[in-house]
Amino acid sequence: MVDFDFEVEEIVEGKARILVPKTTRGKGPGKKEGVPFYNPVMEPNRDISVLVLQNCLSSGKNRILDGLAGTGIRGIRFAMEVSGNLSILMNDWNEQSHAIMLENIRRNEAQNTEVRHEDLNTLLTSDEFDYLDVDPYGTPVPFLDKAVKGVRDGGILAVTATDTAALAGSSPKACMRKYGATPIKSKTSHETGLRILVGYCARIAAEYDLNIRPLLSHSTDHYYRTYLEIQQGQSQANGTRENVGFLSVDLSSQEMFLEEEKKDDFVAAGPLWIGSLWNPGFLEEMRSRSYMPSETSRILELLKLESQIESPYHSSEEIASHLKVHTPRLASILERLNEEGYNASPTHFDSKGFRTNAPIDEILQIFKKT
Question: What class is the 8-281 domain?
Fold first, then answer.
């Protein structure tokens, strides 16, 4: 085994058995300590990426890039768990990451893999990929301009953001500085933050006559994650522009609007993505064909349910506080909405949140009666 300048330990994730730096770990984004970064909390993130890639493969050779690979765990899992014709490139600028990736590939006998030690933006100036993964520590913004152009027509760009304080409204100046958007701090701010991230990707893509089509997006623990199909052509890019707008909130009634223009005298967040964050057909196919650990399966099941409803989700706690009533049980809210003939589902964003096509007046009446 290679001698490293840091203590290592072996972990098992999926079908991979790899070496990672031995550090104190807990929930949250973790702490970047100058050694190859591995966060066990992100395992569901990597689980879902395995499923997405498996369901997006073309019949020919698929070129895959994990641009900020750390220990190489994602790329090695792709090699071991995704069946198909893959050519997997794992890249990281950190010299120690380069060394530990090579050792982990050897230990797992991972096939069709290559490791590079380059700046990601430099790498993307000369190459294109069918699947490109950008999973940084913090904001993905420095990489997205090159990343949207580094995906072939019909390919997938997967993006993670862990700077949720900016996107979800705790640090609005940082959100404006990085994403050129205004967030809203509320009980439902994680959906707003995710939409700002997707909207930012869409705005960059449109500059290069590219369209994005979200296949799957989620907010889990301390991070946001989205998978975007990239399509080339001016007509496609026009469709992207039409899906970028604002979330306006009427504080007096809790009504929310996703529209291309801000509503006067309403609190507004954006610009952000106002289209669907999911492709329901893709989610159904992926969920029905796949087995994953219980936490990952739970996330996918909730995504499948709420993807049928395009309206922003509501926080039951926020509505109850607005009305000065006790918060009803989520099951009771969903049951009453369904009895009234509306679609309603729980949401993965919030264990006490729900998504529905019912008008706000009907929702408020249900809360008053429940």
Answer: alpha beta
